[in-house]
Design a protein that fits this description.
455 residues; mainly alpha; globular; binds 4-fluoro-L-phenylalanine
């Protein structure tokens, strides 16, 4: 009998192409913007250590599981889980993983596109020299003035979505492969240069202490939940994106090795971004816990006081924006591929539909910084509530369902069939960690943050 993957085979032929596209999907605003502000809000090193543990023991095994699932089904996430559950002889209700992922992806993209829009706007602001010889106070005031005005935020967000639409409309492989390949090396070089610069002008020692000397008393249960959620967010899992990318995984290549390269690159970029941003934060007496604006105040200040800083700064935000594009494409891929494969919509029409929905949903985030500033949900603005709800709850929940499906419902021989290049020990290690650590780990963190009295 033909296996599912033999019947629907298509995909990248070289591991390097797959690694480049997947790295593009994972490295984005999560690394450059969110990691530092979350670490800043949650006490630094202790948060970073818990985050790294979550990456290794929970998120990475789930990422492999998603890719294995995609590689088995070779279709959009919904059809993939449906087909694979039929093959496994379990209820097709499991396709809910795909549905859940598509919806979560759209919600994430609704606020992700707003931040990407900020980054676009900052390319032109820096280039125009708006931050030349600025002070931290002025950079903060400019950021607040920018947030107070919904019109331009909407335009920049619209531009970001338009670019994603154009990229995805021409097809995932052609659209992002090249971009990711050019961008990633450039991003590394720029971040290293920026880290070196800010280590010289900023307070490098304080930054290193903050990032690497843990004080676990500063970490709350909510901080642990945020670390777990961010591990999912940064590796783009829990929304079906890696199931969609797994459909294109090249044959006869080690999935675990390709994933390891992606995870290492993703982690390095986050740490480098921290090393670039925190020395400036500490030398300026900006509160590390100032929240989502951290990168948009510290970095413009850093560049604004450097020779030719307006050009370098514009380049930095250009790269942040490009990284956001390759991630935004991944966020849209599950829903777009479902519309075009299952409903047989022409791909550009499917992409347009998804972009339109996201733009409408995004209005809530844009207005939460100005017109609707007064509205609060559980003590948070609409934007923060969306961010919290998706990253800390939906993504880990989606990952948990995937871990249960792949770890407990799919047959071991089928998994072995997809991961046949890996040695026996490595395969067993992944399988064991997925079943006994990743899945229960998410449950334990959920329970301990939501049932405060527990343990
Ligand atoms: N991993 C991306 C980042 O760190 O910016 C965000 C993301 C992209 C999450 C794609 C989920 C996803 F499907």
């Amino acid at each position: 009998m033909k296996t599912l993957s033999q019947t629907k085979s298509r995909g990248w032929r070289r591991s390097w192409s797959f690694v480049a596209a997947t790295t593009g999907a994972t490295i984005g605003l999560g690394n450059l913007w969110k990691f530092s502000y979350l670490a800043g809000e949650n006490g630094g090193a202790a948060f970073i250590i818990v985050y790294l543990v979550c990456i290794l023991l929970v998120a990475m095994p789930v990422m492999i599981a998603e890719i294995v699932l995609g590689s088995r089904g070779r279709s959009n996430p919904i059809t993939t889980v449906q087909d694979v559950s039929l093959e496994a002889g379990v209820s097709t209700w499991w396709q809910g993983i795909g549905w859940f992922g598509c919806l979560a992806g759209l919600l994430v993209l609704s606020y992700y596109s707003v931040i990407a829009g900020w980054s676009f706007a900052y390319i032109s602001k820096l280039f125009a020299g708006d931050f030349d010889a600025t002070s931290a106070q002025l950079a903060g005031d400019q950021f607040n003035a920018f947030l107070a005005e919904p019109q331009s935020m909407l335009e920049w967000q619209g531009l970001f979505l338009l670019i994603i639409f154009l990229t995805i409309a021409v097809g995932i492989r052609r659209g992002i492969g090249l971009l990711a390949r050019l961008l990633m090396p450039l991003l590394f070089v720029t971040l290293i240069a920026l880290a070196v610069y800010s280590s010289q002008v900023g307070d490098f020692q304080a930054a290193v202490n903050f990032m690497f000397t843990p004080d676990f008393s500063s970490l709350t249960r909510q901080g642990v939940l945020a670390a777990l959620g961010h591990a999912f967010f940064t590796l783009s899992i829990g929304v079906g994106a890696m199931i969609a990318y797994g459909a294109y995984v090249p044959d006869k290549r080690s999935i675990t090795s390709m994933v390891s390269v992606v995870v290492v690159a993703d982690t390095l970029v986050s740490l480098l971004a921290g090393l670039a941003i925190f020395p400036l934060v500490f030398s300026l007496n900006i509160a590390p816990a100032m929240g989502p604006g951290l990168m948009f105040v510290a970095v413009p200040y850093g560049f604004g006081n450097m020779i030719y800083g307006n050009y370098y700064g514009a380049l930095f935000f250009l790269m942040v924006s490009l990284a956001a594009i390759t991630s935004g494409v991944a966020l849209m891929e599950p829903a777009t591929s479902w519309l075009s494969e299952r409903l047989r919509w022409w791909r550009p029409v499917a992409a347009l539909m998804v972009v339109a929905i996201v733009w409408l949903l995004g209005l809530a985030s844009v207005f939460s910084f100005n017109e609707w500033k007064g509205i609060s949900i559980a003590g948070m603005s609409i934007f923060s509530a969306l961010d919290f709800f998706t990253a800390n709850i939906l993504l880990p929940a989606g990952g948990l369902l995937t871990a249960i499906f792949v770890g407990w419902k799919m047959r071991r021989e089928v998994l072995r069939d997809e991961l046949y290049v890996e040695g026996r020990v490595l395969f067993s290690l992944w399988y064991w960690v997925l079943r006994y650590i990743a899945a229960p780990g998410v449950l334990v963190v959920f329970l301990s943050s939501f049932l405060k009295e527990w343990v």
